[in-house]
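From the pipeline queue, job 12 of 40. The input is one protein chain; the requested action is below.

Action: predict structure.
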Amino acid sequence: MSTPPSRRAILSLYHTTLRTSKSFSSYNFRNYFIRRAKDTFRAIQSESDPARAQNLFAEATKELAVLRRSAIVNQLYGGWRLAVEDQKPAMTRADT
């Protein structure tokens, strides 16, 4: 019988996944992965079977590695900011 992951381990993985999801430069990818992370971790927390919870946790760990690599590639080839995103004000000489 496998032991389920601790609450601290789940929260740590959740925060790391959210932080990585927020590092995408593309608005659509960023919001998709944030929603997906929330759904995934809700499923892990609501799981009552320890073996199933362990499998979901292991799968989320593997997905985090893929997400990190994808975020790096997305940052390399980031495009223009969309109109729905918060626009950063242009810097002027007086601001420095």
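Job complete. The chain has one domain: 7-78.
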